[in-house]
């Protein structure tokens, strides 16, 4: 007997040692996938490692993966965990602030920028100025959202896909744009990255761009009234990226960006090769576009040139580049066409360039439009404009909300005095980047006003982000005031949904409509948010099982569907679903039965689209009664029923 006990102890010890060893192996594999930019696979492995052992390293890498994939909600959730753990670095407070800003939580973001500034040791004046601008940006964004421009923004669903669609430009009474979509009858193409990166000893796959796993970027067109999108008929271009076009006023000349693999590629042993994008031009002859000709400033192994814009008179070409001598990441330059038809020297447009990145230059009706991620803005790239005068560009201004959002907004293309197109990866789109149209409104139709409350205290919740979603439109956001109040302008004959979101609370939703509404008073809505308490059991009412069974009954399914809805409305939370029995019957059998019931409930939830890693099943048997009804205690059926329960608790928010 003693020998048997020793063996059991040794086996238990070996098992105990195997858990961290397994976690280390998973982390090693996750790191390999991270270095290969395979972030989705890395997330699966880091999640597995974190669930085995909650380390700072695994949490950091999960936050980084989601940030690099631009999944701002998940990234913010993980950075919140990271900054709360011992040994975290100051830079993660900055990343956390960025993610909160990208989620439209500007008040919370400002708090984290303040903490970052306090933790940053030896900051130089430039860094302190940058932090000050980030805080000012949060204040400005809150102000812009509370006083939105009179603009209606629509998602152009007839041209958008599940991938990236951007750089819309009018051509031949239709729209030409850049996309990395799949399933169109054209050479496969893809991604929103500005360059190719690959092993110099082996050319990249011509069908799939390794960074994203999507097709390469290509030019597509959509004719007004057409049901389909077609490939733009450029011939003899590239097997890789082609995109971002600009046309002359008579539509016989075009400039566009392209990547190509040179015959004599400079290679460094053991290092990946980088191919920068270039600009090419083509002329329309006899209804066909000519062989592409390279732009003077192409230098694919040293810098990129892209986002070409040809002025209406054809005499100036604007473009962006990261060539040496600029003010920041990518600057805007222009060239003038000489009498011989060639392009003159490139001139840095110093009036608008910053230490950040400038993109997508356009001239329309006396204004110069562009995007930048520097200065006072809402987040990512913001669209700006400057007035064109004889002396140059003056009065640079941010176009405000809702043209700009917490994400990237770029390739602004006015098509009339009060209308046009732009691209954005804002929340609520069909894909990564979507094309939107905008139309300035003349007057308001209806107004929605309301308040957000803490459901447990009935006190108003300030700094809560409320999102209004309309049919086929871009979501509108605003932060609640100190009294929990919010307000939106509404269009007529439209269905809407409201979502209230605040860190530390479960989200709440409400539906409303203006269809058939003829009143003059504001429509009122009130939302109540439930505080999140980690590891606090929450009973799911009316979850019953047939005697000695674990299958999900129809009445139980109704209640579990509510939990599915909670998890979909709160995509960052993880839960443990626990099942309990009463004390009657064999203890071991009750433990098995409760685990079987918990497994069935969890599988039901997973089958409805919830990721397996977000929910775990736990059978407690009769070990956690809510009353005195333990073994041998005489109790009523009602008292026993209180112990036969299903609960869930949030283990990560």
Task: Give short descriptive properties of this protein.
653 residues, 25% helix, 35 strands, single chain, four-stranded antiparallel beta sheet, alpha+beta, five-stranded antiparallel beta sheet
Brief summary of the model shown:
25% of the residues lie in helices and 31% in strands.
Report on this model:
The chain is α+β, with helices and mostly antiparallel strands and 653 residues long. Helix content is 25%, strand content 31%. It is elongated and about 105 Å long. The protein starts with a helix and ends with a strand. Residues 1-17 and 185-213 have low confidence and may be disordered.
Number of strand elements: 35
Low-pLDDT windows of residues: 1-17, 185-213
| Main pleated-sheet profile | 5 strands, antiparallel
Helical fraction: 25-40%
Could you tell me the strand content as a percent range?
25-35%
- How widely separated are the two ends? 47 Å
The secondary structure category is: alpha+beta
Q: Supply Rg.
A: 29 Å
What's the shape? elongated
How many DSSP helices? 10
Average residue-wise pLDDT: 87
Oligomer: single chain
């Amino acid at each position: 007997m003693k020998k048997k006990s020793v063996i059991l102890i040794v086996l238990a010890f070996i098992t105990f040692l195997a858990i961290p060893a397994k976690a280390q192996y998973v982390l090693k594999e996750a790191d390999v996938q991270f270095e290969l930019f395979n972030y989705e696979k890395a997330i699966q492995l880091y999640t597995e490692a974190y669930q085995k052992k909650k380390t700072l390293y695994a949490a950091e890498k999960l936050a980084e993966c989601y940030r690099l994939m631009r999944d701002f909600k998940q990234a913010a959730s993980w950075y919140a965990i990271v900054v709360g753990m011992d040994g975290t670095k100051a830079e993660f407070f900055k990343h956390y602030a960025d993610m909160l800003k990208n989620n439209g939580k500007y008040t919370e973001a400002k708090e984290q920028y303040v903490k970052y500034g306090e933790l940053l040791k030896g900051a130089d004046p430039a860094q302190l100025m940058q932090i000050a601008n980030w805080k000012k940006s949060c204040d400005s964004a809150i102000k812009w959202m509370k006083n939105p421009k009179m603009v209606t923004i629509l998602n152009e669903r007839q041209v958008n896909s599940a991938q990236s669609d951007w750089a819309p430009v009018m051509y031949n009474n239709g729209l030409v744009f850049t996309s990395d979509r799949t399933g169109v009858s054209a050479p496969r193409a893809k991604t929103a990255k500005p360059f190719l990166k690959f092993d110099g000893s082996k050319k990249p796959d011509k069908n799939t761009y390794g960074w994203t796993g999507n097709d390469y970027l290509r030019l597509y067109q959509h004719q007004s009234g057409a049901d389909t999108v077609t490939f733009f008929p450029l011939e003899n271009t590239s097997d890789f990226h082609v995109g971002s076009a600009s046309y002359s006023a008579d539509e016989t000349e075009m400039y566009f960006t392209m990547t190509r693999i040179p015959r004599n590629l400079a290679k460094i042993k053991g290092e990946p090769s980088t191919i920068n994008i270039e600009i090419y031009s083509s002329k329309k002859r006899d209804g066909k576009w000519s062989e592409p000709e390279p732009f003077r400033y192409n230098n694919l192994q040293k810098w990129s040139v892209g986002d070409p814009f040809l002025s209406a008179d054809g005499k100036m070409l604007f473009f962006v580049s990261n060539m040496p001598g600029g003010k920041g990441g990518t600057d805007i330059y222009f060239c003038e066409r000489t009498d011989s038809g060639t392009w003159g020297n490139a001139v840095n447009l110093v009036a608008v360039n910053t230490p950040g990145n400038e993109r997508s230059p356009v001239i329309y009706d006396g204004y110069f439009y562009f995007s930048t991620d520097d200065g006072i803005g809402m987040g990512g790239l913001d669209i700006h404009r400057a007035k064109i005068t004889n002396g140059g560009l003056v009065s640079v201004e941010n176009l405000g909300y809702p043209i700009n959002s917490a994400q990237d907004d770029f390739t602004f293309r006015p098509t009339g005095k009060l209308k046009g197109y732009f691209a954005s990866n804002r929340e609520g789109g069909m894909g990564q980047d979507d094309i939107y149209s905008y139309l300035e409104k003349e007057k308001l139709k209806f107004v929605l006003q309301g308040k957000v409350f803490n459901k447990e205290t009935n006190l108003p919740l300030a700094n809560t982000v409320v999102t209004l979603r309309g049919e086929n439109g871009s979501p509108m956001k605003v932060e609640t005031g100190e009294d929990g109040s919010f307000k939106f302008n509404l269009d007529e004959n439209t269905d809407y949904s409201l979502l209230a979101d605040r860190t530390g609370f479960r989200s709440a939703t409400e539906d409303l409509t203006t269809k058939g509404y003829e009143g003059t008073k504001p429509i009122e809505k009130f939302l109540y948010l439930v505080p999140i308490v980690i590891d606090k059991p929450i009973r799911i009412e009316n979850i019953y099982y047939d005697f000695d069974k674990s299958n999900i009954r129809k009445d139980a399914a109704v209640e579990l569907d509510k939990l599915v809805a909670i998890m979909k409305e709160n995509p960052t939370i993880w839960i443990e679903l626990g099942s309990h029995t009463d004390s009657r019957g064999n203890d071991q059998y009750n433990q098995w039965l409760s685990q079987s019931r918990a497994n069935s409930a969890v599988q039901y939830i997973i089958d409805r689209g919830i990721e397996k890693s977000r929910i775990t099943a736990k059978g407690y048997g009769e070990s956690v009664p809510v009353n005195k009804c333990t073994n041998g205690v005489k109790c009523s059926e009602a008292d026993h029923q209180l112990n036969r329960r299903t609960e869930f608790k949030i283990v990560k928010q």
